[in-house]
Design a protein that fits this description.
488 residues; alpha/beta; nine-stranded mixed sheet; 3 domains; pyruvate-formate lyase- activating enzyme
């Protein structure tokens, strides 16, 4: 597919609109109109300014399907010109594909943050109307977004300028799921890296804790992610959690989460290590309770083992458990997904996070050519609608974000019982305050004021982390200068 942008600079947004409908199509973006005739499918977006008015035109051709869309706009209103061109393209592609993405032309990662910002300037109803009339979002998505936005705001407002969150990564898994694009290594291929990785991670935690104390930063939340942290042994988990408690003041932390994502890695010894180390919350992530689907995505556990792991966590004393599900998985359907919801609700977890399958380029699923069709996209939409209807009002939507290339262009939503929302998820996605990150693929986000953010990147892979550890510590030297002019 060729996208031609003529006399405008809206390449990024218009390409994103194309990707809503053709997520796996190669899209060539150019400002040369002659390139359009060289492809079977092409779109050209024109802006012609004359006497203060911008004349907007979108032409689309694919085989015998040819459409023209036109509108006008104040030539000085660049944002509105971009939005109107996006709308013209969106409507043509809806007609061509027979699909109407329920988030309309909204392509951003954080729709709830946008809803909050608009609500501040034009009121809640004004923001909802903008989503409906200007962004073409469906009523269902608008109400979900508004609810999540309201709950996010309550949590965001609890953060203070000197607060920070700690994140550290355990990039190892028992196997790699077919949909996964995270930087993680299966144990079979990385066992030799794990002991050294844990040792070095403890050192990085010590250095990071010292910096936080010297700056007077106050720890708010801790999140141990992956990979799958419970791939480690119980003793390795104890060592890491001792490093956290020895180098950070846990008395100010309101939440401490450890992902125990894969049920086949959970044992009583590991759960006791997590609890004794100070964690207050874990996440057990079956993704589905359909054994056929589990097999299709490369999981080495059954639905029963996921339920048994949850019950074991309860028996060990864990009072705050999240469960992750994914809508739109291969081999799944609406009826099967409904049974998964039944099974999870029967367990009565404190929170349930529902993701839409994202077809990441580096995942085995996408590389293998198993791309979703229209029926799967529609089914994913039904699954998510069912989720909202079944979970509320017991669980409230408190956290919402979007990824690229999701089946049906849907969202990921965190639902929780009141008082059990994952604070870290909100602080991280909203970029509320500084996040100090340790471990392979960790990204430290330093924040001051309303909009000043700087990032410090660790090496991605465990072997890079182990082999370049001194460079990782050197990069941490940038944290103190960032705060030189800050008074808490």
């Amino acid at each position: 597919m060729v996208l031609c942008t003529i006399n405008n600079t809206f390449k990024y947004e218009l390409e994103n609109i194309c990707r809503l409908f053709f997520p796996f199509e190669k899209i060539t973006v150019t400002d040369e109109e002659s390139a359009a005739d060289q492809k079977e499918m092409w779109v050209a977006a024109y802006l012609t300014a004359k006497e203060g008015k911008a004349h907007l035109t979108v032409r689309f051709k694919s085989g015998d399907f040819v459409r023209l869309g036109e509108d006008t706009c104040d030539a000085d209103d660049t944002a509105e010109c971009e939005r109107k061109l996006a709308v013209l393209l969106f409507e043509i592609l809806c007609e061509y594909t027979g699909l109407r993405p329920s988030w309309g032309i909204l392509t951003g990662v954080r729709p709830a943050k946008l809803m909050r910002r608009l609500s501040e300037s034009m009121g809640v109803e004004g923001a909802k109307n903008y989503f409906a009339e200007k962004l073409l979002c469906s009523g269902q998505k608008i109400e979900l977004c508004a609810a999540a936005s309201d709950n996010e705001q309550r949590i965001v407002s609890s953060s203070k300028p000197n607060h920070f969150s700690l994140y550290f990564a355990i990039p190892f898994c028992p196997t790699r799921c077919s949909y996964c694009s995270f930087v993680s290594h299966s144990v079979e291929h990385s066992m030799g890296l794990m002991d050294e990785y844990v040792t070095l991670l403890c050192k990085e935690l010590a250095v990071t804790g010292k910096i936080a104390k010297e700056l007077g930063l106050e720890l708010s939340t801790i999140y141990v992610g992956g990979g799958t942290p419970t791939t480690l042994s119980a003793e390795q988990i104890r060592v890491l959690m001792d490093a956290v408690s020895s180098n950070f003041d846990l008395s100010t932390a309101t939440e401490y989460t450890v992902e125990a994502g894969r049920p086949d890695t959970i044992t009583a010894d590991k759960l006791q290590a997590i609890l004794s180390g100070g964690a207050t919350r874990i996440s057990i992530n079956p993704q589905t309770l359909n054994d056929k689907v589990l097999q299709a995505i490369g999981r080495r556990h059954t639905a029963k083992e996921a339920i048994d792991a949850f019950n074991l966590a309860r028996q060990c004393g864990m009072k705050n458990i999240n469960m992750d599900l994914i809508a739109g998985l291969p081999e799944d359907d609406v009826e099967s997904y409904s049974r998964t919801l039944d099974g999870v609700l029967a367990l009565d977890p404190e929170s349930i996070t529902v993701h839409t399958l994202s077809m990441k380029r580096s995942s085995r699923l996408t590389a293998g050519g198993e791309l979703p069709d229209t029926a799967q996209a529609l089914a994913a939409g039904q699954m998510l609608k069912m989720t909202g209807e079944r979970l509320q009002p017991t669980y409230i939507p408190y956290y919402l974000y979007r990824q690229s290339k999701t089946v049906g262009n849907h969202e990921n939503t965190g639902y929780a019982k009141a008082g059990y929302e994952c604070l870290y998820n909100i602080f991280m996605m909203d970029e509320t305050h500084t996040v100090l990150a340790c471990g392979a693929s960790g990204v430290t986000k330093l924040k001051k004021g309303e909009n000043t953010i700087e990032r410090i990147f660790n090496y991605k892979y465990p072997y890079e982390y182990n082999g370049n550890f001194e460079e990782i510590l050197r990069r941490k030297d940038a944290i103190k200068p960032f705060y030189e002019d800050v008074k808490f």
